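Onboarding guide, step 5: your first structure request.
Type a short instruction followed by the sequence, for example:

Predict the 3D structure of this protein.
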Amino acid sequence: MSILTRYLLRRFLALAVFTGLASLLIFITVDLMENLDKFIDTQTPGPLIARYYLLYSPQILVQILPVIMLLTTVFTLGGLARRMEVTAMKAGGVSPGRLLRLLALWSTLAAGLSFLMSETLVRDTSKERMEIFRTNVRKKPATLSENSGRIYFQNDARSFLTLENYNLEQGWGRRAVFQRMERGRLAWRLDADTLRMTDRGWVLLKGEERRLRPTLSARLFAVRQLPELRLNPGDIETLQAAPEEMNLRELRDFIARQRQAGAFTRRWEVNAQGKAATPLANLVIALFGVPLALRRVRAGLMLGFGLSLLSAFGYYGLQVVCQNLGYKGLLTPLAAAWLPNAAFAAAALLLYWRTDR
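The system replies with structure tokens like these:
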């Protein structure tokens, strides 16, 4: 590693750490002010609040890492240009392309780190963090360790299951209703006190079977096998999980099973594409900051900082708009997730082309 590379790396990392810590502190402070009344009303202990935000920190860092990369790029390159170090590098035979390649390498490493954190650390910490909020702030049952809450499961194109709740530790659900449709009308229905997973599959206990087609009939049962049900016990927790509580593989597997059952999966597909597209934003936005920094050298630090924040808000705003258009079916999941990256990559190329070299 050359002296110049080490010098640039030290400056970039120092600014990245400072910007990251400052951004993390601002984010936590704003979120704490927003939820402070809830913590006070529920008398949540201070150590538990501290643990909540400690668990929240990895997800916050993944969310704000593109902003960190943009600000670090603008401040690093802007500082080099103001001190005429870029000119000195050119005079010494160092082309601007070398700076761009170094920045691209660091941004790619940041994108890889973001994806790795999202798939592992964020997934694990989000479960415990959201459980703390559910059980201590919203005062709901312990959804991840005891009860799942109400479950609605589309079994296939013509049948679905409803459960009042499901005990994840003991493997049984209460107040199960399994219904099957034929030609758009209810054909038969099973109501049971308990649904349990056994070695032979799902079993209904203490219930009633009612058939409406072709003739009306009803009978009570103590035990009834339910081989028609395609629900995996592990899916019950997934049905209640937010996207950040699953990694990309788990989310795609869940989508595939729901699609086979005939369920509506567009929202999940948009979220899955977003998980793949979001880490790449670190590279795209960092490269967007290169011409932004070099074109605003004479304008001063504050203008560069303001333009960086404006660009970051523009990216996140476009991301939210595209995501909602994807949810409504106005954009494909692929376009909804990747359009912000494509738009800012095109803008970066345009600005770079117009920048005086």
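Each response can be followed by summary notes, for example: The longest strand covers residues 185-198.
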